[in-house]
Amino acid sequence: MLPNRSIAHERGRLSSVPSGCFWHACRHLADFSDRIAKEGWFTTWRTTLRDEPDGVGKVIRSLRYYMGRAKEPRGRETIRRVLNYFVKNRSRMRYSELRAEKLAIGSGVVEAANKTLAAARMKRSGMRWYITSGQAIPGFRALQKSGFLASAGR
Which DSSP helix (H) or strand (E) runs through 6? Predict the structure, then answer.
């Protein structure tokens, strides 16, 4: 599987910008919201996370607020798990910046690239691959499809 990265062309070279998948972050928000938060919480904080600078910091503050008020152990455990996810991945959740640069914030682009670059080419009828040749083909196809094949040999 390809790493979860958004690709940008920067000053004539390929640069890789790490990003936490927005869809996965929303699943964690929904897990918390469905069990603990009041109605409308998910929609508000999903939009904040996606559109506002330091949206993840605001989500973390909201989760900490709820953590201090949770009475049931199961509720505290859910909040702790979701809070840990956001704290751990905070540096990768710069969604408003990435969207401003017109970069993908979800893993769908990576999954589609995997299908286009690898699966469609390597799973043809009768195809058999060794690990070394199987690894080389997707790399070559990525360079070819991105237009960077000519500069790759330099």
Answer: strand 5-10
